[in-house]
Amino acid sequence: MATLRATPAAAAAADGVIEENAMAILDTSGIKEARDLDDDRAAFLDAVRSACLASDKPSPPSWRMYNAVFQILQNSSSLELTMASFHLLMELGKQYPRTYLTDSGSRQAVVVVKESWSPFLLGNDVSCGEIGASTSQLDHLFDSSRFSSLIEDMAETTSDINANNGIEHIKNIVLLQYLVSTLEADFVPRNVVYKESSHWVIIRESLLQMLLVSRKLGFKTLVKNSMSLLLNQYYREVENGISSKEGSTNSASDIDSFLTVVSFEFERNALASVRKLFIMVMNLDLIRKEADKKGLTSRADGIRNPIMDVVLDELTYNISYLSPFLLTMEWKWRLEIILQYFSKYCGKPAVRTQRTANSQRDLTLENVLSLFSTATTAKSIVKKMGSEVAQLLLANAYQACLSVEGDSGKDNDTTTKIGTTLLQISESFVSAFQNLKKISPNIEITQFEKEALFTAATLTRKLKNEPR
């Protein structure tokens, strides 16, 4: 068999046999017995793995082969086949990337294999690599509307404790994980090149950008459902952590079903996928903001609200979401959200135009703490957002600052958002809490805030006594 694959003609013939098997499997889904169909699908996945990954001279899968594996992922009622097709797609994506970096003189360049198969059907991307593909061969691919519906379904299932978190829910989680990984594999190389070249068109043509600007997508709804998914999963993890401590002696018979346990583990992956999606969109918005300032964008690029605007609206109207949502984010983005939250209450809002965008300065943590430098200035902010919210945000911002200081790989952008030294931040943080106490003498300070305050006071003394 290995000898036959040594020649291109033989390889093509082998691929043709696999494609014929794929079509037979997919066309007889309503005729064969379930066990026979599952056996055929498992054999097909093994054949694709053998030809495209495990062979001495592997060849890239054809459009139909990729497409068939993706359909098996969606249509299978077997957990084993779901996971086998998912892992095969992930491995094929790494072995045969659709978007990748290559050296081009002194810089890197992006290479996009546009004719290759993709799980997305966006804009002009109609999977043209398959000549003569019929509608029935494309209706299982994901456009913006279907992607949004997937997240909505997952959010509803996760929020309903009585929902059946069986194979369908696990399948949705795996689908989301694969789709987000596909978006990431396309966006990350483009982002690398954009940082070197500032060519907006590289980002404009990304799968993520095309997904989000589609008229089929309700962007606010997508963000709200994603937030709901993050929050529900966060609450479940906290609850599970508490129940694990309280009931560590529970026997296996106390577990409702194997699938429920497996589902919970998979939901951690869903949490990670949605967080990745959030971070990619926030990065995309920062790039778009920079491109706007340089006059590189136009209405043809699509218009939508930045994700941060939608997030802040939700957190402002649902204060109870604030603390848990911040905890779902890594420190860099936690700090960004906090600064953006404060910016809603600092000064008079200005109408942003292309001309004024260049003169706008982003708020830093140093700027925020200066708002609490006296009881009078602190009082004006507290009137708008409340003492409890101000304390919570400041404590989280200080924790993020400490995380930045302890990160050897910190980037200049994040350091700029802090604005000054750790000593000055620590001093200002202690002062801010003292002024908040003057305004609201009876306000309660949470354990988290007490620990942040103690750390700031200790560091202030230590850093002042260090020799310069």
From TrEMBL:
Highest taxon of source: Eukaryota
GO cellular component: nucleus; Smc5-Smc6 complex
InterPro entries named in the record: SNI1
GO molecular function: transcription cis-regulatory region binding
GO terms (BP aspect): DNA damage response; negative regulation of DNA-templated transcription; negative regulation of systemic acquired resistance
Name assigned to this protein: Uncharacterized protein
Species of origin: Zizania palustris (Northern wild rice)
High-level lineage: Eukaryota, Viridiplantae, Streptophyta, Embryophyta, Tracheophyta
